[in-house]
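Data availability (excerpt). The following record was deposited with the supplementary files.
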Amino acid sequence: ADDGASGLREAKAQLPDLIICDYLMTPMDGYEMLLALRGEPATAEIPFILMTGEAERAGLRHSENKGEDEFLEKPVSASELLRAVEARLPKK
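Predicted structure:
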């Protein structure tokens, strides 16, 4: 999906096994998308990996209270992303 709003629509329609989402999007950012997903029974349990190029620790602390399963700072190596995905899929 190109943005959080279309990602939310796609998640509701397809019910994916896992979502990897960027933080900085418009008109709905990754946090807003996550909150919307967690508020819907059908999507509340989908594992969610949030990625961002924002390296500020305040952003990391903020994310800890939003319900994502993983918060990755970009750039992310393929092995790091694969580790995060493998750790989250068994939860589904």
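Summary of structural features: The longest helix spans residues 4-14.
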